[in-house]
Write a structure and sequence with these properties.
The chain has 8 helices and 2 strands; from the N terminus they run H-E-E-H-H-H-H-H-H-H. The chain is mostly helical. It has a two-stranded antiparallel sheet. The radius of gyration is 41 Å and the shape is rod-shaped.
Length: 250
């Protein structure tokens, strides 16, 4: 009898042990599931944090770029105003020189056969180079681009020795660029770099030329010209513009 009771107790104890192990196993399974869900949530938070960080970096870059663009526009405007003041000052000097030269050319000349004066025949244009240049440039201000190209070409042919001739060639190239006539603009700027390497706007010319060459699939030549600008005047506004163009290519 005692043996039967002992065996029954052992069976009950064994069954209870199995029940306890089953419960522990279920608890471990639940804990593992909870850990898996927690790790999944942590990974989601990490990905969202990376996405937010990337968005912040992009917004920061855009803000920096906008600030840089605004600074470049201001510097460009300041430079243009300075150029206008300089051109006006030079025009006064040119007009004074032309008046003096005209006075000399209109003076009576002595004849080889006697003292009878012979009036000099003047072949100078009826308007000054400054006036003709201003008339052509006014067409650009009024956005009459096709007419301004013709006017600038006429000016260049009529006043080839004028100090404003290089400016006329520069603006002619600019107008070609505005009109989308890339080949003509490239040719205009390229000949200007060859004919007048000391031109006061040569850095602007090179930046324009480099951009147009890259735009028209001449990337190697365009990069070379922009790199020249940076090497020649690393602290200039044009060097900054050239660097930005090179960054866009890379």
């Amino acid at each position: 009898m005692r043996l039967i009771i002992s065996v029954g107790a052992a069976v009950i104890a064994t069954a209870a042990s199995f029940v306890s192990l089953a419960e522990e196993s279920q608890e471990i399974t639940r804990l593992r599931q909870s850990q898996t869900e927690l790790l999944f949530q942590i990974e989601q938070l990490r990905q969202e944090t990376q996405a937010l960080r990337g968005l912040m970096e992009e917004l920061s870059f855009q803000l920096t770029q906008m600030s840089s663009d605004q600074k470049n526009r201001y510097l460009d405007l300041d430079q243009r105003l300075g150029e206008l003041v300089r051109i006006q000052k030079e025009s006064v000097e040119v007009q004074q020189s032309m008046v003096a030269a005209r006075s000399v050319s209109e003076a009576p000349l002595a004849s080889a056969d006697g003292p009878s004066p012979i009036a000099a025949v003047s072949v100078a244009p009826k308007v000054s180079d400054k006036e003709a240049y201003n008339n052509a440039f006014q067409l650009i201000r009024e956005r009459q681009f096709d007419e301004s190209v013709v006017a600038m070409e006429l000016f260049i042919n009529t006043y080839p020795e004028s100090p404003l001739a290089l400016d006329a060639r520069f603006w002619r190239g600019q107008v070609f660029d505005v009109l989308g006539k890339d080949r003509q603009a490239i040719e205009a700027f390229k000949t200007l770099t060859i004919d007048a390497p000391e031109y006061r706007r040569i850095l602007q010319v090179k930046v324009k030329l480099g951009k147009l060459l890259i735009k028209n699939q001449e990337v190697v030549n365009g990069r070379k010209i922009l790199e020249e600008v940076i090497a020649e005047a690393p602290a200039s506004v044009e060097a900054g513009l050239a660097s930005r163009e090179l960054d866009n290519v890379n």
